[in-house]
Amino acid sequence: MDKIAQAKKMAAERAVDFVEDGMTIGLGTGSTSYFAIQRLGERVAEGLRIRAIGTSKRTEELAQAVHIPLITFSDVKELDLAIDGADEVAHDYSLTKGGGGALLREKLVASAARRFLVIVDHTKRVHHLGKFLLPVEVVPFAWELTHYRIEQLGCRATRRRQDNGEPFITDNHNYILDCDFGEIVDPPLLHNALKALPGVVETGLFIDMAYAVIESDGEHVTVEYPKS
Ligand SMILES: O=C(CO)[C@H](O)[C@H](O)COP(=O)(O)O
């Protein structure tokens, strides 16, 4: 396992230490969350009783494969904990998410969690967000108009494609526009401007949501609590 994968695994496994018997858990999407799901599966095999909601179809499949019981928001309206990765973590703990295209479900799940644990390797830390293109989920109808209006806000936006060249379609049957705004110095301002556009479903900006940021460089793990 390379150093970055080791860092992701260490951060993910530290997050799973927060999980207690009887909890309801939001399960993130991506290569870091993968390690959390695997570790949770081990603990479930040892007798831990949890129920979980996945943030993507891929995550639901991974959870089912390791026998984590899945529920839906018809069963609960609040989760004890959500564990998820991020594409960037800024100095003010705002996040960019959606590299895996799951940002809408990820935001819904994180917003329902009493504590949202962000798990990252050290390469995800930045001063200001923006090196990673900002994913914005848009409805397919009139996406060209939404694309135009988003670019009018001052970015270059590209509709995400799959490896085979077809448009990437989210689990919610929408498109993703990857937006290059350069350095994002005021994430709430940008998020609000994007959300004001008809056709924008959600942005990959996660602001004031993290309860803890758990980071590893493959050797050490640190846990920071932004809200304390
Ligand atoms: O937001 C996400 C998926 O939509 C992921 O959490 C984010 O892309 C980080 O992924 P990884 O853990 O693979 O680096």
Automatic annotation (TrEMBL):
PANTHER family: RIBOSE-5-PHOSPHATE ISOMERASE 3, CHLOROPLASTIC-RELATED. This is Ribose-5-phosphate isomerase A. Pfam families: Rib_5-P_isom_A (PF06026). The active site is at residue 106. Belongs to the ribose 5-phosphate isomerase family. Pathway: Carbohydrate degradation; pentose phosphate pathway; D-ribose 5-phosphate from D-ribulose 5-phosphate (non-oxidative stage): step 1/1. It is an enzyme of class 5 (isomerase). Its EC number is 5.3.1.6. The keyword Isomerase applies. It catalyses: aldehydo-D-ribose 5-phosphate = D-ribulose 5-phosphate. Catalyzes the reversible conversion of ribose-5-phosphate to ribulose 5-phosphate. The lineage of its organism: Bacteria, Bacillati, Bacillota, Clostridia, Eubacteriales. Keywords: Isomerase. The keyword Isomerase applies. Homodimer. One of its GO terms (molecular function) is ribose-5-phosphate isomerase activity. InterPro entries: NagB/RpiA_transferase-like, Ribose-5P_isomerase, Ribose5P_isomerase_typA_subgr, Ribose5P_isomerase_type_A. NCBIfam families: PRK00702.1, rpiA. It comes from the Bacteria. One of its GO terms (biological process) is pentose-phosphate shunt, non-oxidative branch. Gene3D superfamilies: 3.30.70.260, 3.40.50.1360. Substrate binds at residues 29-32, 84-87, 97-100, 124.
